[in-house]
Specification:
This protein is α+β, with helices and mostly antiparallel strands and 158 residues long. Helices cover 16% and strands 33% of the residues. The chain contains 5 helices and 9 strands; from the N terminus they run αααβαββαββββββ. Strands 1-4-5-8-7-6-9 form a 7-stranded antiparallel sheet. A two-stranded antiparallel sheet has the order 2-3. It has one domain. The radius of gyration is 15 Å and the shape is globular.
Length: 158
């Protein structure tokens, strides 16, 4: 279906085995990949400090060992396709996304939560920010029902 629409759904990701089980999400932040195109890239695999990401072959999709992943977020910052995210249900719901706009976001900022199609689906608060290769890696609190939908943020209009 995503080949026609250009947007992958949470259900399609789950059917491809790319969504961690809820029990893992409750233990803490864990990487998820939405890298569904089979392209020759393995930046996430090379950058992962605990070797939790594996890409088989020249054009394989990344696979994450969710038990090995520490949720550090380095993969989120290095992915040139902005197709890596962190999900976390350990202390409420949180999503970590790449952010490459100005002005830079800071902890405590209010942001609009965007789905895969860029539609505003809610509002969240930035709870953590760090940088990897000039890309901000931003963690935002989200309503739990939006955990599998929020994949970008933008500064809320004031």
């Amino acid at each position: 279906m995503f080949r026609r629409s250009g947007v992958v759904s949470a259900g399609e990701l789950e059917s491809m085995g790319l969504v961690p089980p809820r029990e893992r999400l409750i233990r803490g932040a864990v990487a998820v990949t939405e890298c569904i195109e089979e392209i020759p890239c393995n930046v996430c695999e090379s950058a992962c400090p605990v070797k939790a990401i594996r890409v088989e072959g020249l054009r394989g999709r990344p696979r994450i060992d969710w038990d090995r992943c520490t949720g550090c977020g380095v993969c989120v910052g290095v992915c040139p396709g902005q197709a890596m995210f962190l999900l976390d249900l350990s202390r409420g719901a949180a999503v970590t996304v790449p952010y490459e706009f100005l002005p830079r976001l800071r902890r405590g900022d209010t942001v609009e939560l965007l789905d895969r199609e860029g539609r505003v689906v809610g509002e969240g608060t930035v709870i953590r920010v760090f940088e990897v290769n000039k890309t901000q890696v931003v963690t935002v609190s989200v309503p739990e029902n939006l955990l599998m939908e929020v994949r970008a943020v933008r500064r809320a209009a004031r």
